Amino acid sequence: MMLSLDFLAIPLLVAAALVFVSLLAGMFSARLGFSFLLVFLVAGMLLGEDGPGGVVFEDYKLAFWVGNVALAVILLDGGLRTHHSTFRTGLKPALWLATVGVLVSAAITGIAAHWLLGLSWQMALLLGAIVGSTDAAAVFSLLKSSGVRLNERVAATLEIESGMNDPMAVFLTLALIGWIVNAAHGWAPELAWWWPLWSLVLQFGWGVAIGLGAGWGFALLLRRLTLWARPSGGVRALLLTSAGLSVFAFTTWVGGSGFLAVYVFGVLVANRAPQSVTPALSAMDGFAWLSQAAMFLMLGLLVTPTEALRTLWPALGVAAVLMLVARPISVWLCLKPLRFTRHEMAFISWVGLRGAVPIVLAVFPVMAGIEGAKAYTNVALIVVLASLVLQGSTIPWSARRAGVALPDAADTARAREVFGDFEVPGHTRMADLCGFYGWPLTEPGHQSVAEWLTQALERPPVEGDHATLGHAELSVRSMEDGAIVRVGIRLLESPEATAD
């Protein structure tokens, strides 16, 4: 009797063929403006019990494990591609969005869920926490594949926020689960009022501390290894991935945010050992895509579309409130004091993408044994699909509409449209420029145009920023090391033409 290997061959054939077909379909869908991630999610649902595949999959622990590991790899890859210079403009707004922004979004969405889905206040706020944060996989993937070059302030804010908001989402989810479980057992929640705050401190504190410490040490080790052994790019990527997952696991084990730790680890390693990391980025990109494919396929397999359809319209209402009310209000509250323009805030509001994170977080209450928790995965699925279809497919259009898209270096026509027909060096004296064009004189007279523009903006300048002087618009055309080196000039018929 021969040993049958069908148990290996058939599942492997199905999984590999599914990924292959999904990738091919994703390439075509990307040309139409739809996300690769959407294709993987739909492919998983087609393989599931409601689709032609008919596979019944209810292993929440396995889905939770795969989802967390995949998110860790995606965040590591995103951190490795985040330049330290972007923190100059993106860290402060991203921190506000990753903390206060998530809290406000979760609260407003929870109120909507209470009225639309008829949930109790505790259950409704838990749903708000589950869908309240943006998704790193969706943001990193869709911004990269959109083909749009965003101004540094907007791009850095979106990327850093998505890499740092998971601790707040996890904290809110676990705190509300604890509240619901305690209430079900008749325990007084006020006896443990300090626990959520202490948990939040641990999440952020351990995440940042371990990420920084491990990143500094591994960057030093990687530089030494690359000088001594000269490993290939693939080996370096494996070293980075194994080290990053170790950081993620250890931080989670001690009670910190593994997601925050692995992101900070990636940022520090990439900026302290750039020459050692750069050859590994191509392989890391492959690891990240494999992680996204595995995660979205499994999450699609986990959900049951026919069950989700029972709450379709209320769930779409929750998604609409999240996208059109909760996210814009939270962005306005966090970014208006930092002098973001209304166009920048509108774009950041619209690109608050939801992806795998809400579905992964929806597994938490199921594993905690909360009655009716399966409904969270159904609502999270509809919210994610709505976000990927509506928001993910309109990134290029919305970026151009909001004026946050920068022209490519070779696109001279678009560059003239954005920066104007004329340009001068940043060190040009404003007195000379005003005299030449007949503009009102600025004070002090010896001030350079770069200094005047920085002062007029009242925030760290980035390429594409602009300010009005008389009947002209002056814009930041190029920068080096945080300083303005070239300024574009557009002559206007009237000052009203520049109104936001």
Short description:
It is found in: Cell membrane. With 500 residues, the chain is an alpha+beta fold.
**How large is the radius of gyration?**
25 Å
Which strand order spans the largest sheet, edge to edge or round the barrel? 3-6-5-4
Average pLDDT confidence is 88
Distance between the termini: 78 Å
Strand content: 5-15%
The CATH class assignment of the largest domain is Mainly Alpha
Low-confidence stretches: 495-500
The main sheet comes to: 4 strands, antiparallel
Question: What structural category do the secondary elements indicate?
Answer: alpha+beta
Number of domains: 2
- CATH-assigned fold name of the largest domain: Na+/H+ antiporter like fold
Order of helices and strands: HHHHHHEHHHHHHHHHHHHHEHEHHEEE
Helix content: 55-70%
Total helices: the number is 22
CATH architecture label of the largest domain: Up-down Bundle
Which tags fit this structure?
500 residues, alpha+beta, Na+/H+ antiporter like fold, Uridine Diphospho-n-acetylenolpyruvylglucosamine Reductase, domain 3, 4-stranded antiparallel β-sheet, two-stranded antiparallel sheet, globular, disordered C terminus
Write up what this structure looks like:
With 500 residues, this protein is α+β, with helices and mostly antiparallel strands. The protein folds into 2 domains: 8-406, Na+/H+ antiporter like fold; 412-498, Uridine Diphospho-n-acetylenolpyruvylglucosamine Reductase, domain 3 (2-Layer Sandwich). The chain is built from 22 helices and 6 strands. The protein has helices at residues 6-31, 36-47, 60-80, 87-117, 121-131, 136-145, 152-164, 166-184, 194-228, 233-253, 258-272, 274-277, 281-302, 305-309, 312-335, 342-350, 356-367, 374-391, 395-402, 412-419, 430-437, 449-457, and strands at 149-150, 405-406, 422-425, 466-469, 472-480, 483-491. Strand 4 (466-469) and strand 5 form a beta hairpin. The longest helix is centred in the middle third of the chain and has 35 residues, at 194-228. It starts with 5 loop residues before the first helix and ends in a 9-residue tail after the last strand. The relative contact order is 0.13.
